[in-house]
Amino acid sequence: MNCRNIISLFFGHFSNYLVPFSMIFLLSRSLDESDFSFFMYSRVVLIWAGMFIEYGFTLRAIRYLKKDNIDHVTLYNLIQSTKIVLSLVSVFIVLIVLYLTGLSSFYNYILVCLIFVFFGLRANWYFIAKEDTSIMTIIDLIVSVIFIGTIFFIENNNLTYVLCLMVVYRFIPTLFHFLLLHHFMILESFHLRMLKMR
């Protein structure tokens, strides 16, 4: 792993800690007690559901992508399809758990599920396995700073509104990963075809 990847991973971890810690300080002043309690409870749910969806794909992907004969498109489709199945299982379990707690509205439960689904569907595993984490880090940093700025400068005393912003915050990196990887894979398949034609 080169120095550039080490630095980008450091800043990536920084952006992952920036948002949760900033939100605790910002929302503890603006949300009422019951909404803030649900927000903190949902943070725990988000972490566990996100870990369940990730399922160690980064370690497996590094092993498979190092093989010369592996088809990257097939591997990407397999991993992302598995993540979708795990997301559906997570949503079902989390909705039941949150509904039984009765801490908030069903609409907020759906928003919490969307947050961890979009977080889990990111393709960080691909960038880490390819040892090119700078793109991933730049996307995470920009989206994190915009999100924290938005929470700081607007009225943030409505929990549903905050959760909607978190859905957008988690959806944007997932969308960029999807678009970038499809672009990379199209170029890679074109390059392989050109090599076969020679």
Short synopsis of the structure:
This protein has 198 residues and is mostly helical. Helix content is 85%, strand content 0%.
Per-chain topology:
Layout: H1 3-30, H2 33-54, H3 57-65, H4 72-101, H5 106-120, H6 124-129, H7 134-153, H8 159-197
Helix pairs in contact: 1-7, 2-4, 2-5, 4-5, 5-8, 7-8
Strand segment count: 0
Global mean pLDDT: 83
Query: How would you spell out the order of helices and strands?
Result: HHHHHHHH
- Total helices: the number is 8
Please give the alpha-carbon distance between the first and last residues.
Answer: 32 Å
Radius of gyration: 19 Å
Strand content: under 5%
Regions with little confidence, pLDDT below 50 for 5+ residues? none
Describe the sheet with the most strands: none
Structural class: mainly alpha
Helix percent band? over 70%
What overall form do the CA principal axes indicate?
Answer: globular
